[in-house]
What we know:
single chain, 155 residues, mainly alpha
Amino acid sequence: MEDKIKRFGKFILSIDRISKNIKRIENNVMQKYDLRSAHVMCLLNLVNSNDGLNSTELAEACGVDKAFISRITGELENSGYITRNQNDHGSIYKCKFILTDSGLEVNKYIHDSIAVIMGEVSGNIPDHKLRTFYEVLLVIDDNIAFQLKEEKYGN
């Protein structure tokens, strides 16, 4: 059991450090467009949606609250990277955000940058090991989320 605790401690520290370093890389790469990692998170989720996402869906996809999404989407709208789908009727909060042509251009730049970075970061790791790593990481993420949902350790 002691080994598992030590490994888990190293895992938590590594995940935290990786997350911080990824945000630094995103911020450095995105300076060209005057965007931060929070913007990247929203743009990537929007490009992966078929018909856009509303504020609630975007907040859930990004793992943040709606107030944060409201601020970020406002900044992205002001920059001309996203717009509200004009075909949506009803509440401003139910309208789906979609990418503009400029948003699609930025997403191509993000995608290309990620491809280069991932090639450099994981280039010497065989594909089958990366697949296994990501599969296990997702299971751990789901298990932790389940523990919080069950309110065993969450609020």
